[in-house]
Write a structure and sequence with these properties.
The complex is a heterodimer of chains A (356) and B (563).
Chain A (H helix, E strand, L loop, with lengths): L20 E2 L18 H4 L1 H31 L14 H32 L6 E4 L7 H18 L5 H17 L1 H5 L20 E3 L16 E6 L9 H8 L1 E5 L8 H5 L5 E5 L11 E3 L4 E3 L6 E3 L5 E4 L8 E2 L1 E3 L5 E3 L19
Chain B lengths: L21 H10 L2 H8 L1 H8 L3 E2 L6 H21 L8 E3 L11 E3 H11 L4 H28 L8 H22 L5 H15 L5 H9 L8 H31 L13 E6 H26 L5 H4 L15 H12 L5 E3 L2 E3 L1 H28 L15 H20 L2 H8 L3 H40 L1 E8 L5 E6 L3 H8 L3 E2 L10 H11 L8 H22 L6 H5 L1
Antiparallel strand pairs in B: 1-4, 2-3, 5-6, 7-8
Helix pairs in contact in B: 4-6, 4-11, 5-6, 6-7, 6-11, 7-10, 7-14, 8-9, 13-14, 13-15, 15-17, 17-18
């Protein structure tokens, strides 16, 4: 193996690019060839071989044991029926079922692998074989024939002589992909003005998200926060979730003295302010309110809004303030919306500022 | 088809010939049904081609296998789940065994996922196996990809297979995202809402794309059935197809091997498919399967009953996607709130810039083989792998890429880091913002210098051999340490690699390329040349001679000699 074998198969058809590869001095070192083989214990010692054989067989048998455990526990540790350790229909039963069937299956599968690998490593030949590589590229003759097939085929098709067909073909192949747009358009409606409006309307009562009850201004304690929805947005509506996704609002009462934004205070009622809960960055619910700082924080990407300043962005990736819902108080003292949000809620989009 | 027969190790080369007359072997072929198959599908030819094919052995070659095998586990467990999962967003009232949610309005998708988890025998196990094997699949793909990157296995002729592997990584992300969105819980629903927000941020067509994907306004009633079709049909079919291409190219190119004595660019040294790899690789499948099953039996994952059914209003702090999607969330957290209006239309840079960064990172990775080829101008086939320290700039670039990836992934967990380490989330975000620009540069430089230091150390080792800790003081006071020269097999690995040199502009080399080659190779450490080694050995021999003369060949300490 002392012949010089350290040459990369260089393409005979070099691209002619100047290469950074430096020539090796004196052709470099000769490859010393495969080192002498060191035999394993099991190759030389019959007792070690026997031991390895028993080991492999033992590992296979462990797998059988695992299979038995798996099958048995599938029927005696069930989530809903028989269960030796947990009351059926409880999470306890589910956990025992998962643990026993899982460990049984894991043992059944793992030890087949362990046995096979141990077999290969201790008992199958461990002397390395040498296989020659072939050139990836075809011989000159093959490449010649291949090129011939292309040129002859093109010639036979007459593509060069029949420009009319070619033009028509290009037209057909260009037109067809446009057809894809037609079925694609049925995947969903056009946006229209949907993104510009929510369920909120002038006079709709502001209700608690949890139980749908209306809220009196007097019930809103200083620095408290309410997660609210418009009255009438109930589960029987066809587009219940879509409307909820837009109408989600938080109601917060701050000391009007702290207010830095008169417009914002004017749209509220005695320091009770209502802001869209949907982040103007990518639309997560801005669910966290820090009472001490009057900041609202989006847990997804940490956009932070200052409630005392018209929910202006003071940190994070959002750009627009949370849109504010104008609020009023009706004759019975309940808080109602003074109208829809003045601008689209949620993530910004291309025609956000166009009236629709 | 191949007609080359691999060289068997010489010790057993001739043994079977005496018993195996042609007839006897044919008989055996018939006995196992081989004859029947051969007459119908050329089974014998296929076996001759594949049966004794040689694959080299190395632990780092197993990551690709882990990816393949965990994909098989994904298919098995996923098929089981489709038997019980209902991909529908129709609303039902939950009345299963999980008490906290009884009476809640949930989608059929969510209800059936709870049903699988709590009421179907073995359902929770298969659900957890499906999710865990997905995480393992993505880890394996990623580690495999960087094994290929750092060893230069993407070089000619394997550039196309690199692209196939890259596509598999991206498809894995798509499969993962569409999969964990299916249960319709609060966590995945908010993930979908983020995707909706990202799409709306695309100029001009954004809102249209969002409406088309969701079949109307978010969340609509279509997204889960649509994702279901993508998740169980389109993406797995594409993955299977690409795996097939990946494997065919692997066989066509034959596997790469690490440099070593007897290993050349023209051969492949290792073990035959049958029986050694049938047992090793086949067994390894069961090992991977078994370990994933054990994790799934003992470790809960994606407990959607704790998150609750999807509702657009709530979200919990600590909302993170699966690990392989983390990096796509990090950029969204780091970007400042940049948005501007042009002719009354809104451009959301706080969405577009992160998308551009993600795209840039991916495209750079995909195109790297072609970039490096352009720089080196190296037109040769490479079947021997580079040791990463022998390619300091490539290794530095790879580690810098990973550092960027990790910073984005860590930024996506900034709220958890802030909570656990009691840090300010704002400081942390600013730290990551700065690190995004600085870390890759620092990491590149440090990695490159470490590689060069290793090259120097290996060079010394090749020239002078191992230090023996035996120091001799000569008569003139000079201290000499005795070195044990390496044997030629051990030395070969240290001296076999190629040397690359920067090019000067002009003569067919553009100034851009000259600058690139300078960036790559100006700090090179030249490999040991044969003449240098001769000189070093001569010098060592001379030194040894002097020491032997002085000590008489006895290197024990004078103190020890007295006893």
């Amino acid at each position: 193996m002392s012949e010089h074998v350290n040459e990369n198969p260089e393409s005979p058809r070099s691209s002619g690019t100047v290469s950074t590869v430096a020539p090796k001095e004196g052709g470099g070192f000769p490859n010393p060839g495969l080192p002498p083989h060191v035999h394993r214990q099991a190759d030389e010692n019959p007792r070690a071989e026997k031991r390895a054989e028993r080991m492999v067989a033992g590992l296979f048998l462990l797998s059988v044991l695992g299979t038995v455990v798996f099958i048995a526990s599938y029927f005696v540790f069930t989530p809903m029926g028989t269960n030796l350790l947990g009351e059926p229909g409880t999470l306890h039963a589910v956990r025992w079922s998962n643990l026993f069937t899982g460990v049984g299956l894991a043992v059944a599968v793992f030890f087949i692998g362990a046995a096979a690998v141990h077999w290969a490593k201790t008992l199958m030949p461990d002397e390395e074989w040498v296989e020659e590589r072939h050139h990836i590229e075809g011989s000159d003759e093959t490449r010649e024939v291949a090129a011939g097939i292309i040129t002859d085929g093109l010639d036979e098709s007459g593509i060069a002589r029949r420009p009319v067909i070619v033009t028509a073909m290009i037209a057909a192949l260009t037109a067809l992909p446009i057809a894809v747009l037609a079925p694609l358009s049925t995947f969903g409606p056009l946006p229209g003005s949907k993104l510009h409006h929510t369920f909120w309307k002038k006079g709709l009562r502001i209700t608690r998200d949890t139980d749908g009850t209306p809220i009196k201004a007097s019930e809103v304690a200083m620095n408290s926060i309410f997660h609210v929805m418009p009255e009438g947005l109930t589960e029987d509506l066809e587009d219940y979730l879509e409307e909820r996704a837009k109408a989600a609002t938080v109601l917060i009462r701050i000391d009007p003295e702290l207010g830095q934004n008169q417009d914002s205070l004017d749209n509220g009622y005695q320091g009770i302010l209502a802001f869209s809960k949907i982040c103007t960055h990518v639309g997560c619910p801005v669910a966290l309110y820090e009472q001490q700082t009057h900041h609202m924080l989006c847990p997804c990407h940490q956009s932070t809004f200052d409630v005392t300043d018209g929910a202006k962005v003071i940190f994070g990736p959002a750009h627009r303030p949370l849109p504010q819902l104008p609020i009023e108080v009706d004759a019975e003292g309940y808080l109602v919306a003074g109208g829809d949000f003045p601008e689209p809620i949620g993530p910004s989009f291309w025609d956000l500022h166009k009236d629709k | 088809m191949s007609t080359t027969t691999p060289t068997r190790p010489s010790t057993e080369a001739e043994a079977p010939a005496s018993q195996g007359s042609g007839d006897g072997r044919m008989l055996r072929l018939g006995a196992v049904g081989g004859d029947w198959l051969d007459r119908r599908v050329s089974g014998a030819g296929l076996l001759r081609f594949m049966g004794r094919k040689i694959f080299p052995d190395h632990w780092s070659f197993m990551f690709g296998e882990v990816a393949l095998y965990s994909f098989v586990v994904l298919l098995i467990s996923g098929t089981y789940l489709t038997m019980f999962f209902v991909p529908s967003m129709d609303e039902v009232v939950y009345n299963g065994i999980y008490a906290p949610l009884q009476g809640a309005h949930v989608s059929k998708a969510y209800e059936s996922t709870l049903h699988i988890s709590f009421e179907v025998k073995g359902g929770l196990l298969f659900r957890q196996m499906h999710h865990w094997s997905c995480l393992v699949f993505m880890v394996a793909i990623f580690v495999h990809m960087f094994r290929v990157f750092f060893t230069g296995a993407f070089r000619k002729p394997r550039e196309l297979n690199w692209l196939v592997g890259f596509a598999l990584m991206v498809l894995g992300m798509v499969a993962g995202f569409t999969g964990y969105s299916l249960p319709d819980d609060v966590l995945s629903g908010n993930g979908l809402r983020v995707v909706d927000g990202l799409m709306k941020g695309i100029p001009i067509v954004g809102t249209y794309i969002s409406m088309l994907l969701f079949g109307g306004e978010f969340p609509g009633h279509d997204i889960i059935p649509r994702f279901f079709t993508i998740h169980i049909l389109l993406v797995p079919a594409a993955i299977l197809g690409l795996i097939a291409i990946h494997m065919v190219m692997l066989v066509l190119h034959k596997h790469t091997q690490y440099p070593g004595p007897g290993r050349t660019e023209r051969n492949v040294v290792g073990f035959p498919v049958f029986p050694v790899y049938a047992a090793k690789a086949g067994g390894f499948f069961f090992l991977v399967f078994g370990i994933i099953t054990l994790i799934s039996a003992t470790t809960a994952i994606n407990a959607i009953w704790i998150y609750g059914p999807y509702d657009p209003s709530p979200v919990s702090a600590g909302s993170q996607p699966d690990w392989y999607m983390l990096w796509t969330d990090g950029g969204l957290r780091l970007i400042p709130g940049w948005e501007f209006t042009i002719f009354g239309y809104t451009v959301s840079l706080n969405i577009l810039l992160p998308i551009v960064v993600y795209g840039g990172l991916l495209v750079f990775l995909a195109l790297y083989p072609f970039i490096e080829q352009w720089v080196t101008g190296d037109d040769r086939e490479h079947h021997l792998l580079d040791l990463p320290y022998n390619a300091p700039v490539r290794t530095g670039i790879g580690v810098a890429w990973l550092s960027e990836y990790l910073i984005l992934a860590m930024a996506a967990t900034n709220d958890l880091i802030a909570l656990k380490l009691r840090l300010s989330i704002n400081d942390l975000t600013w730290t990551f913002r700065i690190a995004f620009f600085l870390a890759p540069i620092i990491v590149f430089y440090v990695t490159k210098r470490l590689c060069i230091a290793m090259q120097r150390q290996k060079r010394d080792l090749a020239l002078h051999g191992e230090e023996t800790s035996k120091v001799v003081r000569m008569e003139d006071g000079q201290m000499l340490e005795i070195h044990e020269p390496l044997n030629e097999f051990d030395r070969w690995v240290l001296v076999q690699h190629d040397d690359y040199r920067p090019l000067k502009a002009g003569k067919g080399v553009s100034s851009l390329r000259a600058a690139a080659t300078s960036f790559f190779f100006k700090d090179r450490v030249a490999p040991v040349a044969p003449s240098e080694l001769r000189e070093a050995l001569e010098h060592a021999g001379h030194e040894r001679h002097r020491i032997d003369e002085l000590t008489g060949g006895d290197y024990t300490t004078p103190d020890a000699r007295r006893h």
